Amino acid sequence: MHTKRIIPCLDVIGKNVVKGVNFINLASVGSAIDYAKFYNNEGADELVFLDITASNEDRGIMIDLVRSISEEIFIPFTVGGGLKNINDVRAILKAGADKVSLNSAAVKNPRLIKEVSDYFGSQCMVLAVDAKRRADFKGFNVFINGGRIDTGIDVFKWIEKAEKLGAGEILLTSMDSDGTKKGFDLELLKSINNIVKIPVIASGGAGKIEDFYNVFKEADVDAALAASLFHYEEVKINKLKVYLKENNIKVRI
User: Which residues act catalytically here (predicted)?
Assistant: First the structure.
């Protein structure tokens, strides 16, 4: 079994971290820099930073904030939101990011996945996918622009295509589970993990310590991401890792 990763996520508007339920009713919870430093010291394996309104507002990412955070932490750092082309990606990596997360831009221009993978390496090309069940419950669609636009694209076909284009990792968020604290969407995650060979990061729905055990044991994902659960210290990362290790899930302590 590969070592499983625990990843806190900073959904950022302005310079503050925000959190909501099902991608709506967003409320500020604190400074992005302060949270980044906290997680660096708390034992997080990586940190994800998402500028969640950049694409919808048709603007670039807050590069100065990315640079400030990168100077404060010593764990792998993934940055996404508003990246439109290879020059944007280059600028973010130069500012200190280790990986970039592409979502809306990749859907609009799938060739960008290949460009980033070919130029910088697939290891830094993370495809972020916001997935939501269709009204008839017969599949999942890809949403973009911070969950505001239903593309009508089938999640499974899109992820298979992205892997072929060079995506090195999938950050898969269940919009149905996001912020509900009812557990990860195991059905969705297991289905995706069965069709790809690249690592899958589970996102959306973590509500208690057992949810992490379940997603690693049942869906066999490579990493689990959470936000409000960690932000409000309802679950402490160091205690979570001890719990997982005691239950035979391989983690880095």
Answer: 11, 130
**Which of the following is catalytic: 11, 51, 178, 185?**
11
Active-site choice (45, 51, 88, 130): 130
Question: Catalytic residue at 11?
Answer: yes
Domains (range + CATH), the chain: 5-247 (3.20.20.70)
pLDDT of residue 59: 66
Q: Using DSSP, state whether 28 is helix, strand or coil.
A: strand
**What are the start-end ranges of the H helices in the chain?**
32-42, 63-70, 86-94, 104-108, 111-120, 155-165, 186-193, 209-218, 228-231, 237-246
pLDDT top residue among 153 and 146 = 153
Kindly state the tokens that stand for 139: 């599949």
pLDDT at position 28 over 90: no
State the amino acid at position 224 in one-letter form: A
Query: What's the rounded Cα separation, in Å, for the pair 227 and 118?
Result: 31
- What tokens appear for 107 in the block? 């859907």
Q: What 3-state DSSP class applies to 124?
A: helix
- Cα gap 237→7, rounded to integer Å: 9
| CA atoms of 158 and 110, how far apart (whole Å) | 10
**Measuring CA to CA, which residue among 135, 211, 212 is closest to residue 176?**
135
